[in-house]
């Protein structure tokens, strides 16, 4: 047996087509296209490639791009001035600050300075707070992409036992918040380096989300046969990108979101969705 694919590339392409129609409508209402801003500090090649990809995605669905690239030695002041500028810019519907920032910068202070209404990543403390409270807010892109990928492949979430490996702020921690909402109704076990008996927790699960950044951590012997397995972790090695799920897992899993081609493209599509939704909220107040 080999797992069916949770195809993030095809699903993200379908979502982009749906978004393009909504962009055309909100552009007609407001007289201007939604705009996505990116703030990139420094010259990490991975981050550059990722930001370039976002601007390509925007062009495909009719979202205008606003790009602010700062040198690696940019001061806290310079970065915060850029944040203030985007907060004030009516052409910028939403934006992201590409993480990680260089170590000399205070990333928390930069993120807190963003206008929560323009937070396309859904990672502003106010928006994470709203997620916790169950109040409408932009959702974190990777967790939202994971839920959307499972829904569009009809993998049941209500009552499902989900094992999330990793409690990071971009993936694991907010994913637990999303999946335990009444609208998803999953039961989540959040694992981390302090977890005793990781294999036991993984084997209990109907859905396994590996977001640890530890290559090949999840092996076939750990899995419940037929489980849905999502490989979120990405480690750069000399041989290219490696996921958290060992290739053998496909022999036991019922569904597999591979890396690449699974959750990554969904993350990018959800960023666009957050910007389109912000534009629609603005259109309603015109
Ligand atoms: N595909 C996509 O769209 C995206 C992929 N990513 C990738 O997802 C991964 C997670 O990202 P992020 O949350 O930001 O990362 P963090 O580094 O913030 O978090 C990683 C988490 O994994 C846990 N962990 C690490 N190794 C193990 C292990 N051997 N066993 C159990 N738990 C472990 C850590 O535990 P502890 O807290 O105890 O240290 C930590 O909670 C990264 O590889 C990142 O590159 C991120 C964003 C988007
Ligand atoms: N403010 C901020 N928001 C983020 O969402 C954010 C960030 N900073 N910093 C870095 C991480 C990482 N991340 C990825 C998203 C998509 C792919 C992706 O599309 N991956 C492709 C492969 C890409 C390739 O081949 O290089 C795939 O999995 O198929 C990867 C990684 C978002 N992050």
UniProtKB/TrEMBL annotation:
Keywords: Amino-acid biosynthesis, Histidine biosynthesis, Hydrolase, Methionine biosynthesis, Multifunctional enzyme, NADP, One-carbon metabolism, Oxidoreductase, Purine biosynthesis. It catalyses: (6R)-5,10-methylene-5,6,7,8-tetrahydrofolate + NADP(+) = (6R)-5,10-methenyltetrahydrofolate + NADPH; (6R)-5,10-methenyltetrahydrofolate + H2O = (6R)-10-formyltetrahydrofolate + H(+). GO terms for molecular function: methenyltetrahydrofolate cyclohydrolase activity; methylenetetrahydrofolate dehydrogenase (NADP+) activity. GO terms for cellular component: cytosol. NADP(+) binds at residues 166-168, 234. One of its GO terms (biological process) is tetrahydrofolate interconversion. The keyword Cytoplasm does not apply. It comes from the Bacteria. Residues 6-121 form the Tetrahydrofolate dehydrogenase/cyclohydrolase catalytic domain. InterPro entries: Aminoacid_DH-like_N_sf, NAD(P)-bd_dom_sf, THF_DH/CycHdrlase, THF_DH/CycHdrlase_cat_dom, THF_DH/CycHdrlase_NAD-bd_dom. SUPFAM superfamilies: Aminoacid dehydrogenase-like, N-terminal domain, NAD(P)-binding Rossmann-fold domains. Residues 140-282 form the Tetrahydrofolate dehydrogenase/cyclohydrolase NAD(P)-binding domain. Its EC number is 1.5.1.5, 3.5.4.9. Pathway: One-carbon metabolism; tetrahydrofolate interconversion. Catalyzes the oxidation of 5,10-methylenetetrahydrofolate to 5,10-methenyltetrahydrofolate and then the hydrolysis of 5,10-methenyltetrahydrofolate to 10-formyltetrahydrofolate. HAMAP family: THF_DHG_CYH. Belongs to the tetrahydrofolate dehydrogenase/cyclohydrolase family. Homodimer. This is Bifunctional protein FolD. It comes from Streptomyces davaonensis (strain DSM 101723 / JCM 4913 / KCC S-0913 / 768). The lineage of its organism: Bacteria, Bacillati, Actinomycetota, Actinomycetes, Kitasatosporales.
């Amino acid at each position: 047996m080999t797992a069916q694919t949770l195809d993030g590339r095809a699903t993200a392409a379908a979502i982009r087509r749906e978004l393009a129609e909504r962009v055309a409508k909100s552009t007609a209402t407001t007289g201007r296209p939604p705009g996505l801003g990116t703030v990139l500090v420094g010259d990490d090649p991975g981050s550059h490639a990722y930001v370039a990809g976002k601007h390509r995605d925007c062009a495909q669905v009719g979202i205008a791009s606003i790009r602010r690239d700062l040198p690696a030695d940019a001061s806290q002041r310079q970065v915060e001035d850029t944040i203030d500028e985007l907060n004030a810019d009516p052409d910028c519907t939403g934006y992201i600050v590409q993480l990680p920032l260089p170590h000399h910068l205070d990333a928390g202070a930069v993120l807190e300075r963003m206008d929560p209404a323009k937070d396309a990543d859904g990672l502003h403390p106010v928006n994470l707070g709203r997620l916790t409270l169950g109040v409408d807010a932009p959702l974190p892109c990777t967790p939202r992409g994971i839920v959307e990928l499972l829904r569009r492949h009809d993998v049941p979430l209500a009552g499902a036992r989900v094992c999330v490996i990793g409690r990071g702020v971009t993936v694991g921690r907010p994913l637990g918040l999303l999946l335990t909402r009444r609208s998803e109704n999953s039961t989540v076990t959040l694992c981390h380096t302090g977890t005793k008996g990781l294999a036991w927790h993984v084997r209990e699960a109907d859905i396994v989300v590996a977001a640890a950044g530890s290559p090949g951590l999840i092996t076939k012997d750990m899995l419940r046969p037929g489980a849905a397995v999502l490989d979120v972790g990405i480690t750069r090695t000399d041989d290219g990108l490696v996921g958290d799920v060992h290739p053998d897992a496909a022999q036991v899993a019922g569904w597999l979101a591979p890396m690449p081609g699974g959750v990554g493209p969904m993350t990018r599509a959800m960023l666009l969705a957050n910007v389109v939704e912000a534009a629609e909220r603005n259109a309603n107040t015109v």
